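Quick start: read one record
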Amino acid sequence: MTREAVSNWAMGWIKMDDAPRASPELWSMVSNLEGADSLVARTEENGEIFLYTNDDFEDWYREIRGIL
């Protein structure tokens, strides 16, 4: 998925009035994913620099697997 698609998916859950909140940890991760496409900087040398890195996403995935 693209960063924008992940962010849109998470925002869909966040905007729901009756969204299930299984646990504070999972809800925190959904909130973080809403910012998946948050751009911090754009440089000629490094291109786009995002708030969250692929390592962040991998860490959250491992956390989720440990919770579920």
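The first helix runs from residue 3 to 15.
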